What we know:
Helix content is about 50%, strand content about 5%. The protein has helices spanning about 5-15, 20-40, 50-65, 70-90, 115-125, 130-140, 145-150, 180-195, 215-230, 240-250, 255-260, 265-270; strands spanning about 155, 165, 175-180. It folds into 2 domains: about 5-100, DNA polymerase, domain 1 (Orthogonal Bundle), CATH 1.10.150; about 115-275, Intergrase catalytic core (hpI Integrase, Chain A, Orthogonal Bundle). The protein is mostly helical. This is Tyrosine recombinase XerC. Pfam families: Phage_int_SAM_1, Phage_integrase. Keywords: DNA integration, DNA recombination, DNA-binding. One of its GO terms (biological process) is DNA recombination.
Amino acid sequence: MIKLDLAHKNFIQQLEDQGRSKSTLIAYGKDIEQLVDHLQKKGINLVTNIELDHLEEFMKKLANENYTPKSISRKTNSTKTFFRFLKEAGHIVDNVADFLKHPKVEIKAPRILTKLEYRALRDAARDDVRTFAIIEVLLQTGVTISELADINVSDLQVEKEIGSLAIPKKSSKDGRTIPLNKAAVEAVKKYLDQERPKIDDSRHLFITKTGKPLLVRNIRSTMERYFKLAGVEKAKVNDLRHTFVAHHLSQGTNLLFISKIAGHKRISTTERYLQYIERVEIEEKTELGVL
Length: 291
């Protein structure tokens, strides 16, 4: 029988061994730490003593503390993942979290930047070579902010006008190779040639002046500042991913192709963008034009 604290520690260690991103480790770590704290206050210290009622009580407590349904749904996912780990490791016989239900979450329409908005964002950052490259990579490839922060220089092929970016396989996602169009290649090459510190042991593409990897929170705060400078309201970093998907679909790019490039687990995730755009059906392109 394993204690909750040790199970929590082993769970996070397994995620780290699987190559999950730092932001993912932090999110899972905090979610399960919160669950463990709640259970221990109830006198539950062994994973074998946890019942479905205890988990449902925890989720109800979060709702009473004004957590949003979206936040509770994320913590439900974290709990289910934790219990799958416990079952696979042989720490529990029955997985009570299988019966834990998600709260109803209202699905909001994605924030899709107009051409004027993303061009204004690009113009606002034009003199900031590193941020300009970050914007181009996000906008022209549709990668997530975590994937962007994890890019290594060795993942890139930018020797020619059209390049590529390799996103390595994670435990929850298949790896994929994303074409880099001319705009992305030019921005990355300019950053590598003119701005990125020449530090041999820094593997990451986007780094600080001292060679340390840019953290997700640093990228997010920088982007928020440039959204404000550009006059782009109510926009977040992930909205560039929405913009990438929506604009390419509206230009007639093949839906399955975009789904694979974006790394969507289900084609239905990509299909839902169709209701928010005017789709061009004339051609089914399998290449990424410049946004």
